[in-house]
Amino acid sequence: MAAPFDVTIRGGRIATDRETLQADIGVRDGVIVAIDSRLPPAARDIDAAGRWVLPGGIDSHVHIEQLSGMGRMCADDFYSGTVSAAFGGTTTIIPFAAQHRGKRIPDVVADYARRAREKAVIDYGFHLILADPDEEALTQHLPQAIRDGISSFKVYMTYDALKLDDYQLLDVLALAGREGALVMIHAENHDMIRWIAQRLLERGHTAPKFHAVAHDAIAETEASHRAIALSRLVDVPVLLVHVAGAETVQLVRSAQRLGSKVYAESCPQYLFLTADDLDLPGVEGAKFCCSPPPRDARSQEAVWAGLKDGTLGLYSSDHAPYRFDASGKLPRGEATTFKEMANGVPGIELRLPLLFSEGVQQGRITINEFVALTATNHARMYGLSHCKGNLAVGLDADLALWNPDREVTVSAGMLHDNVGYTPYEGRRLRGWPELVMSRGRVVVEGDRLLAARGSGRYIARRSPEATLPAAGTPPASRLPAMLGLQGKAWPTL
Ligand code: DUC
Ligand code: ZN
Ligand code: ZN
Fold it and tell me: Does residue 95 line the site of ligand 1, with CB under 6 A?
């Protein structure tokens, strides 16, 4: 008789977002079909004794093969980006299909889809970056994109080439409410940043460290507050991406307690870096420049607390890979000012090892919180939980075997991205994903890549299915009823 499973993962400690158990996992046709003690032998048995068996990470904020608002191309294409993700224990990514003004959304989506199809080694979906929400986009192209599985869009409150005004943000929110999509917001006050930057440059303050001065935490908090107010006005949820500052964490927590439908994400750079890292000789600090910038020790603690208590439900990398040369960070070499450097840091491969080592191993979060923050909540928020984000019968066999005792000293040379440096150089981490499986295929084993270029699949996402808990009843805006804006109901977990 043929073995009942293609693969059995035997004897590991399994963690889901809710529980921890010692059991075997049986996989057939790429799907988990059994979780039980002592499953029968399979065509291939993988020994997981002494290992954590965790859901493969979902990284829902990555920039891959994307042209930035400043016209700079990312260093990673869909091959190097997904290979790097896989080596870090991530099995699904949601990068952006980035619209620039004047470009038609269907063309943008088709272009990204083709490039990803040819190169990705793990599964992926897409968000849209929406820079031009004109009538045709709002009435035809966005509803079609949502039907095609792109159920979230990112919009910007800053950057000359991308910024939407409040009127446009309300248009986008209203559409998302009608169609059951999620709006992700880059919340920074554009004019505050522009105003400070102009004065810094006039005084000859051009070094990378002034990026963090220009992107003051107040600019983040003000825009976040405004985004929440716009969301309340039309009664449509928002997700604040890359929350950096202590005040913004507190703002989100208070808004959630009042019942606002605001969700929030943070990233490794806000746990492990501060603005002081930008203060290096010459232009070296450009390697640590992202927007919003890393802040201070108090904000790091606030982000940890927010991840722990659920205020920040998502932990993503915001992998925005730019090389330390004219193609990315330094268009004018040593003369490059902080306004000209590409914004973004790499993190797709180290996102999980950093949180595992400094969060789980240091006792700041539990292993189940790790799973929720890195996989399950992303699946719920972004309409993937019918197939991804946990270890359960019926879900894709996307998982990683973590050796909790493996010690690693981070260096750029060990990573698989195409960036050439890492902001985490020299850090000592404990715990590493040694075997990574995507839909039942072993894609990484030790230092070997076993997946073929183009073997990742596009996943059409559904509407976000659930929200994170909201404590109160929102002070209701009567506007949605008066304007006929009611859309999809958003259940509470
Ligand atoms: N916003 C991002 O989300 N990523 C990189 C830079 C930025 O401004
Ligand atoms: Zn952003
Ligand atoms: Zn980003």
Answer: no
**467 pocket-lining for ligand 1 (C-beta < 6 Å):** no
Q: Are 456 and 436 in contact (CB under 8 A)?
A: no
66 lines ligand 1 (CB under 6 A): no
Q: Give me Rg for the CA atoms of the chain.
A: 22
Size of the chain in residues: 493
The residue assigned the tokens 């790429």 is: 30
Domain harbouring 198, CATH code: 3.20.20.140
Mutate to test the pocket of ligand 1, among 94, 190, 343, 351 (most ligand atoms within 8 A of CB): 343
Residue 361 resides in a domain:
yes
**Dihedral sign for Cα atoms in the order 136, 67, 273, 55:** positive
Residue 455 resides in a domain? no
* pTM over cut 0.90: yes
pLDDT in tens, 369-406: 999 999 999 999 999 999 999 999 999 999 999 999 99
Nearest partner of 216 among 234, 195, 185, judged by Cα: 195
In a domain, residue 461? The reply is no
The finding on whether 344 has its CB within 6 A of some atom of ligand 1 is yes
Name the residue of 318, 322, 338, 341 whose CB sits within 8 Å of the most ligand 1 atoms, as the mutation to test its pocket: 318
